[in-house]
Amino acid sequence: MSTQPNYHIFDYIVIGKGLMGSAAARYLSQMTSNVAVIGPDEPEDFASHPGVFASHYDQGRITRQISKDAIWSQLAMRAIDQYADLQQRSGIHFHEPVGCLFVAPPTDPYFSQVLDTAERFNVDYVVYGSSAERATAHPHLLFPEQFASVYEPAPAGYINPRELIQAQMKVARAQGTRLISEVVTAVTPTPQGAIVTTESGQVYWTRNVLVAAGAFSNVHALLPEKLPLRVKTETTILARISASEVARLQGMPSIVYMVDAPTLDKIYMLPPIQYPDGNCYVKMGCNTAHDQWLISLQEMRDWMISGESDVAMADMQAALTAVLPELKVESFESRRCLVTYTTHGKPYVDQVSEHVYVATGGNGSSAKSSDTIGWLAAHLMQMGDFPTGFKREGFRIQ
Ligand SMILES: Cc1cc2nc3c(=O)[nH]c(=O)nc-3n(C[C@H](O)[C@H](O)[C@H](O)COP(=O)(O)OP(=O)(O)OC[C@H]3O[C@@H](n4cnc5c(N)ncnc54)[C@H](O)[C@@H]3O)c2cc1C
């Protein structure tokens, strides 16, 4: 008599079709075609969307190798090394190596880290000796005269996170990965694996499951225990500009700017990018005095659907136009997002029970490095440990 079950058992199910989940699926499916990714598509209309949201609904995420933390540099560098191959294999272009300018008070620890990173990892960079030198290299940009700056040339720049996910999924699907566009409501561990239940009541069996549900990792019964994650509201503004302004700003790099302002902190800015509505926008985001910490699914949904993202608009507009003083803006609008922080400031890539793993906690910095994070998760699930060069300790749940 056959003892085979009469249902299909996946080797791996990845929960979350986001930046980390899609990368993990691509790497998992290199070893076996028996992989499924379960996660919803981007909602077309936020207001009527009943489910979860993501932190990647955008056209630009800064990518750079130099960081204040060597582990972040290592994550980014390996990911950046994969961009060209992934673009070529998928036929999807997502990387714009326009460079990245870092501007901060001269006492910022970044400047000493630059030397360390550059020496350890052989990264190119340019330190501007004066604000005049910076202005010559970046004539459209204005910063406080006493602020120091470092320019990291290509491959730093930005990636399109939506296109990156498309690229990861296209390759993963070509390797046999099944895509199920649903929200998972429960993961029930069993001695042999886990049972994964979706919102529509579908049930899937798997030998191993990876929870990569971003800001929403704690809000359904996906994990045996809640992860120590903190989720913050994040506001960006989009300045719509004309084609002639786009041409004028040709060569503008991505920017990270440690602004000295009473209500804003840590500005990031992207050069003009075309959005799905056909218009071009300069995007700026930052921490603001109005940011809130959210816990429940309802709080996160309320923020994404109708949160008061315009409250910081005036200060953010002023900051954007201070950096780009000649910019002719046709209109401003605000956008809402969520940033998920871990206790140690690195993503959690860990095993939580015999067949259940996590990759989550982007700390506002993981888009650029998501390929490496997915690779680490896949390696841990398949080999029981991290690949050489990365230590598990730095990524464990605390
Ligand atoms: C405004 C903003 C600017 C940023 N800028 C940068 C930047 O310049 N550079 C950079 O490197 N990083 C940046 N980041 C961070 C980066 O976008 C995140 O770190 C990254 O998106 C995290 O990837 P993730 O896979 O963990 O989450 P996500 O990309 O959010 O993916 C999680 C996925 O899980 C799905 N999901 C959730 N719950 C469930 C469920 N129950 N069942 C099934 N699926 C589920 C969601 O639909 C989503 O698709 C920024 C973030 C924000 C918000």
Q: How is this structure best described in words?
A:
- With 398 residues, this protein is of the alpha+beta class.
- 27% of the residues lie in helices and 29% in strands.
- It is built from nine helices and 20 strands.
- The strands form three sheets. Strands 5, 6, 7, 13, 14, 15, 16, 17 and 18 form a nine-stranded mixed beta sheet that branches.
- Helix 1 packs parallel to helix 5.
- The chain is globular and about 70 Å long.
- The relative contact order is 0.20.
Structural class comes to alpha+beta
- What is the alpha-carbon Rg in Å? 21 Å
Indicate the overall shape.
Answer: globular
Percent strand equals 25-35%
Number of helices: 9
Quick one: how many beta strands?
20
Order of helices and strands: EHEEHEEHEHEEHEEEEEHEEEEHHEEEH
Small molecules bound in the structure, each named once: flavin-adenine dinucleotide
Mean pLDDT, to the nearest integer, reads 96
Largest sheet: 9 strands, mixed
Unreliable sequence segments = none
Distance separating the two termini:
47 Å
Helix % is 25-40%
Keywords:
binds flavin-adenine dinucleotide, 9-stranded mixed β-sheet
